[in-house]
Design a protein that fits this description.
The protein is mostly beta strands. It has a single domain, classed as TolB, C-terminal domain (Neuraminidase, 6 Propeller), CATH 2.120.10.30. The protein has no helices and 21 strands. A four-stranded antiparallel sheet has the order 3-4-5-6, with no helix packed on it. A four-stranded antiparallel sheet has the order 7-8-9-10, with no helix packed on it. A hairpin with a 5-residue loop joins strand 3 and strand 4. It is globular. The chain starts with a strand and ends with a strand.
């Protein structure tokens, strides 16, 4: 972590754990993974390093049987955390959401799909991916806290970002809530709330306006 020009190592749940940061929100909460290799057995634990308590780490525990693998993936500005539970690829894998207040909950794949995975969270929306019966991937949008899952139109295979209004960046397009698709010549990596996307095209960094 870099704060005020100074690098600080983020602690693991154990002093011997390796750590991986995945995302940070506007107030400085960081989420990621604490990797335990005790006894030669590897297990991953989803964690948050809260901005309000510098130098501390807290495990994010999913309900049900303790998973061998859990990772922190993204964190919303209100402190809600998106994670991933299970090992890839297994039928038991799924995204998981830990609200800032109250119990967490899994997100399930849309009907007829499996192997779901979330990639981004913003203002109660989650973007991610699931696989259909033919083995092809599909971009998915979830609504939190209802858990409703929708396969996005356009045949896009992956989703990488979501904004305040539920617009999702998937492959080389932005898919809006009403179904409108804005295609771009390149690969989107970041989607802002004000209709701007950024990514790569032709080996260069690119910004697209009016997405």
């Amino acid at each position: 972590m870099l704060r005020h020009g100074k690098f600080t190592k983020l602690p693991g749940l154990k002093s011997t754990d390796g750590t991986r940061a995945a995302a940070i929100n506007a107030r400085g909460d960081i989420v990621g993974t604490s990797e335990d290799t005790t006894g030669g057995q590897v297990s991953w634990h989803a964690v948050i390093w809260p901005a309000a308590h510098p130098g501390t780490v807290r495990e994010l525990v999913a309900d049900g049987p303790a998973p061998t693998w859990a990772q922190g993936v993204d964190v919303d500005d209100n402190g809600t955390v998106l994670g991933f539970v299970g090992q890839r690829p297994t039928e038991g894998q799924h995204p998981y959401v830990w609200p800032a207040v109250g119990p967490g909950r899994p997100l399930v794949a849309p009907a007829g799909y499996g192997y779901p995975e979330g990639t981004a969270i913003r203002a109660g929306w989650v973007a991610g991916t699931a696989f259909g019966p033919d083995g092809s991937s599909a971009a998915v949008r979830w609504r939190v806290p209802s858990g409703a899952a929708t396969v996005l139109p356009g045949g896009f295979g992956t989703a990488v970002a979501v904004n305040l209004f539920g617009s999702v960046a998937a492959d080389n397009a932005v898919i809006h809530l009403g179904g409108r698709i804005r295609s771009v010549s390149g690969e989107i990596k970041v989607l802002a709330d004000w209709g701007v996307a950024a990514g790569t095209a032709g080996g260069a960094a690119v910004v697209w306006i009016g997405c």
